[in-house]
Amino acid sequence: MSHSLFLPxxxxxVRSRGWDCLDIIIISGDAYVDHHSFGTAVIGRYLEKHxxxxxxxxxxxxxxxxxxxxxxxxxxxxxxxxxxxxxxxCNRTSANKPRRTDMFSPxxxxxxxxxxSIIVYTSMIKNIAKGxxxxxxxxxxxxxxxxxxxxxxxxxxRSILLDSKADILVYGMGEKPVLEIARRLNSGEPDLSxxxxxCIMSKEAPSDAVSLPDFEIVRDDKKAYMKAHKxxxxxxxxRPDYPIFQKYQNRWLVHAPPGPPLTTQxxxxxxxxPFKRRPHPMYDSLGGIPAFEAVKFSVTAHxxxxxxxxxxxxxxxxxxxxxxxxxxxxxxxLRQYVNDPDFKGTVSDIGGPTANMYxxxxxxxxxxxxxGKSTCLGDSPCPALNRDHSxxxxxxxSARSIKGISHVFVSSGLRYDIIPESDAYKILTELCTHxxxxxxxxAPEHISPNxxxxxxxxxxxxxxxxxxxxxxxNKKLKKKQYIIxxxxxxxxxxxxxxxxQLQRFLTGQGFIPDQIQDFLPTPMTTSTCMYYTELxxxxxTTIFVPKSVHDRTRQRTILHGYKKxxxxxxxxxxxxxxxxxxxxxKR
Length: 587
Known about the structure:
This is YgiQ family radical SAM protein. Strands 3-1-4-5-8-9-12-11-10 form a 9-stranded mixed beta sheet, sandwiched between helices. Among the domains are: 3-195, Cobalamin-binding domain (Rossmann fold); 438-587, Transcription Regulator spoIIAA (2-Layer Sandwich), CATH 3.30.750. The protein is an alpha/beta fold.
């Protein structure tokens, strides 16, 4: 396959296209995979479609200035991203130890990106390409756009826009804001203010904006930090047409309002861009890119999630309004898979952040208004929420009828609490019959009422009802499928007694816990706010937060089912009992 089919990654690629220079150069902490699941490819192809010459420098050696100039200097700007994940989440565990692998690097090799990649990359560019604007974006920039608690330094840090000294920050998925920045700079207009979905620094406070507490205040006062978080959540939910700002000494960070959600037509146009749907050939001899293998023959049907889980950052990145592709767009992509010589007939997933939110939404959002509620779900779905699954089920049925497709699976996880009760048996029967490969991922996360309240998750009874219905249908279909429940350990507010409740529940249900994740405080989430402040966001009362290695180890130990009393358990973590079990299958 000719390298020229990909976005340019070398001067030879640039010259082969007859170009003297590039308009925009994307610097990424990820390897270059030309697939719509990878942000660098989406932004690059989107700008390319609109007439801009775009190149990519993936995973440059941040200690070598020459690596950042291998494509020359761009005519308009450098676009800098850490990649599909925050670089610290990618590089370090919840115990702040280096990870052994990196799924977004060749052969899964760790160490290919620096910690705080955006700051490191931008600093280098500012030193060697003075005067060239730098635009930062992606999830690392998006979730660090305001003052935020940083787990790895155990401190409240400034906006990454200040720390990186970039010219403008793009938050969210970013196609439209980046295009507007390119158009303004291309027309010779240096003013980048007022672009929806961006943040800039200003020497003056905007007159038409709402103020968050100053950085110095939220840095030094935990209650002020919580106040700022609650204020920003409310602002983002309402999606107003005015900016919000935060003062940093004698300057102001101006956070422009988010733009309108993408329409179905706009979604279709983005996912129809000429992606090559594979990693760049330069990685073929390096073991490929592991993250690509997980999505190689999957379909992103929609963006956004209205789940509102306290520990999830998607609300602040993709937003809570579902943006769905059309059925025709999805089926067209599937037909392309059939023509791929590597395709063996199995579609691994049709979904999104939550598979069964396709086509769903709030009647208020459809009218461009907001109901005033802080969550669409919580313990039970809001009455204003459209939960009709017929569009999603129709797409699954149509997909499996395409000649050349043998299996269509749903692997991105289901929210069982949004399935309409009246349709639950029918929907789950169809899923079990056709779309579950043997294991169904669900995320109850816990069973303790207090912990679930803090997580903004539904109660235990919803999971039990779903589990019983799943078992009933499996028995009728004479299948041996399994529910794979995910649980979080050491969430803010979770005590040892809460963990013992979960252990007793799992023991009674016959589950062998394996899908267990230690709570990791990532920037901007509500759970991280509670972790840092040790306050219940909803009542503002003090809560227990397991922060020490001792407390976190004991909670994980309980869930792994040590037979000895927790009171006599040693402080040093042991090999978890039942580690030989590779799944959370119900016995």
